[in-house]
């Protein structure tokens, strides 16, 4: 096998190796935290709220991501359970991470007294930032790569630097850097969401839904290029439908990665991406029709929990009750926003 161009171990502390994979995931989480804190300041939300959210959300995401992956690869782990915990070797699924993080968020936001949709809107660009950076952990581990490709495609058509081209030599051939495709797609998504959230027509929850739509579109097309997809055996009609939707990629010169027929004929992430896109669009439409999201993204965010004794409230928050920081109460005689219908 071609030697790794990059050593997956950064350094060791005694006998404990520190892997690039974990370090890169940590950097991605911090980048997402930075974006959330920066945007949260516009709404008077203290940075401690987002820091605590990260401390709870990252473990929840990792657990969810690992459970999701192991559940679909159980035959590879059932005889060696200790390998379930070796996440530094790769093997976590982003959709599983999102499930774990969302469950944690629902509980944490309710405990802190913040409306779920308003906070996840703020966090959406940070999620993409974490995914954009985290994909480089797959690059170092030489995993989540695509089908075989000519070296000239990487050098002459994509104009990739040597360190990426060399790392994409896996086994006895060069492969599509699908980690890079997804990373760049996430970068474009960050720019899109940042522009979108400045538009006055955007309602609460729609930035978060737009994140799911954008990411899932990219994941649907990129996933089929990979050779390590989780899959299952489904109907031939469904497989044909999915392949038909993916066929425009062939016009761009891409080929689907090999998928063992004995393992399955439908890639789980592709099917899930389609379901998420449809569900997110329907949710936006239904909420608009029913008038559920009364708040816009730019509206003040109100916390329904009582203020803490050591919380410093800025003068602007005191003078403008509707634009409150954590725990600030509305003036007497005015209805609390937290008593209104869910935003």
Automatic annotation (TrEMBL):
Here the segments flagged for biased composition (Polar residues) are: 317-332
Annotated a 1,2-diacyl-sn-glycero-3-phospho-(1'-sn-glycerol) binding sites: 135
TM region(s), chain numbering: 20-37, 49-72, 92-109, 178-196, 202-222, 229-246, 266-286
Part of which pathway? Protein modification; lipoprotein biosynthesis (diacylglyceryl transfer)
How does the record classify its membrane topology?
Answer: Multi-pass membrane protein
**InterPro entries per the UniProt record, alphabetical:** Lgt (IPR001640)
Q: Does the keyword Cell membrane apply?
A: yes
EC nos: 2.5.1.145
Disordered: annotated segments: 312-343
State what protein this is by name. Answer: Phosphatidylglycerol--prolipoprotein diacylglyceryl transferase
Q: What is a single molecular function from GO for this protein?
A: phosphatidylglycerol-prolipoprotein diacylglyceryl transferase activity
PANTHER family assigned to the protein according to its UniProt record, in alphabetical order: PHOSPHATIDYLGLYCEROL--PROLIPOPROTEIN DIACYLGLYCERYL TRANSFERASE (PTHR30589:SF0), PROLIPOPROTEIN DIACYLGLYCERYL TRANSFERASE (PTHR30589)
Question: HAMAP family, from UniProt?
Answer: Lgt
> What organism does the UniProt record list as the source?
Paenibacillus odorifer
Where does the UniProt annotation locate this protein?
A: Cell membrane
């Amino acid at each position: 096998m071609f030697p790794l161009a990059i050593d997956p171990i950064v350094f060791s502390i005694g006998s404990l190796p520190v892997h690039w994979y974990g370090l890169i995931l940590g950097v991605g989480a911090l980048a997402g935290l930075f974006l959330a804190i920066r945007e949260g300041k516009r709404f008077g939300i203290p940075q401690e709220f987002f820091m605590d959210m990260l401390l709870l959300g990252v473990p929840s995401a990792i657990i969810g991501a690992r459970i999701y992956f192991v559940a679909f690869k159980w035959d590879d782990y059932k005889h060696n359970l200790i390998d379930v915990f070796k996440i530094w070797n790769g093997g976590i699924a982003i959709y599983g991470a999102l499930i774990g993080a969302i469950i944690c968020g629902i509980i944490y936001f309710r405990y802190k007294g913040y409306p779920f949709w308003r906070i996840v809107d703020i966090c959406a660009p940070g999620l993409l930032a974490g995914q954009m950076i985290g994909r480089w952990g797959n690059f170092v581990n030489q995993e989540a790569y695509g089908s075989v490709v000519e070296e000239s495609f990487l050098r002459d058509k994509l104009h990739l630097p040597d360190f990426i081209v060399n790392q994409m030599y896996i086994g006895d051939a060069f492969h599509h850097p699908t980690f890079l495709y997804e990373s760049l797609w996430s970068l474009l998504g960050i720019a899109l969401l940042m522009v979108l959230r400045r538009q006055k027509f955007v309602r609460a929850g729609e930035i978060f839904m737009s994140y799911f739509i954008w990411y899932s579109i990219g994941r649907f097309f990129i996933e089929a290029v990979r050779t390590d997809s989780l899959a299952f055996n489904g109907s031939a009609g469904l497989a044909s439908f999915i392949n038909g939707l993916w066929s425009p990629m062939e016009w761009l010169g891409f080929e689907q990665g090999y998928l063992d027929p004995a393992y399955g004929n439908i890639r789980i992430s592709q099917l899930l991406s389609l379901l998420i896109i449809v569900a997110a669009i329907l949710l936006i439409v239904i909420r608009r029709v029913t008038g559920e999201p009364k708040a816009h993204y730019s509206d003040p965010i109100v916390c329904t929990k009582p203020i803490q004794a050591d919380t410093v409230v800025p003068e602007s928050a005191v003078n403008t009750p509707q634009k409150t920081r954590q725990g600030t109460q509305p003036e007497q005689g005015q209805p609390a926003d937290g008593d209104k219908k869910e935003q």
